Amino acid sequence: MEDPVTEIPRVIRLLTQSPPSTQRAAVEKYFTPSASFTHPFCRSGSFEGSRWLIWCIYRWYKIMSPRIDINVDGIAYDERNLTLYVNIHQVFRIWIVPFFNAPVSLVTVLKLKALYFIQSQNDLYQVNEFSKFFSPFGILSGLLLVAQFVATALCILGATIFWPVSWVEQNVIGGNREKSIGEAVRG
Question: How many Cβ atoms sit within 10 Å of the Cβ of residue 110?
């Protein structure tokens, strides 16, 4: 790639919506031979020739869901660290399961190397997002949403009950300064 921010939406479409030969050519063109791929459900590792595993993962992805709706909603580029953060939403449909679709959002982190080849791809999903792949009609996702609100209520309860810990940290130990409790007690 010459301009990763401009070109990455097209690269993503080539990887996810192309026929097999075009998809393979895209993997070979944009990924390094030892690139890695990490997803909540699979990973390739990184070794000489691991790019072939990435092609197999994309191939199976396309076989499972021949018609994928995918959109790039935003891109952030950390030029100093050669890292792209790509906000994506997609609708994944498994052809063998009628009426099933999983509308999910994710952030894909792409680590680049010289000449902007992809060295690693890491797909990051919130738990309630990747649960949509397993749960018809969003049942599991709904249960996870409830569990997340219960966890938030427990955080409120814990912060309320244990407020003295925060008071000691702020007023005795000194906020974020590096000071142990022993130093605070000794004065």
Answer: 24
Reading the block at residue 74, the tokens are 């935003």
Q: Output the pTM of the full model.
A: 0.81
Q: Look at residue 47 and tell me whether its pLDDT is greater than 60.
A: yes
pLDDT (tens digit per residue) in 105-121: 999 999 999 899 999 99
In angstroms, the CA 160 to CA 146 distance is: 21
Residue 67 CA to residue 76 CA, distance in Å, equals 27
User: Within its chain, how far is the Cα of 137 from the centroid?
Assistant: 22
Contacts of 110 (CB under 8 A, 6+ apart): 4, 8, 83, 84, 86, 118, 120, 121, 122
- Asked whether the beta carbons of 75 and 55 are under 8 A apart, the reply is no
* Euclidean distance between CA atoms 119 and 82, whole angstroms: 10
Strands 118-124 and 31-39 come out as parallel
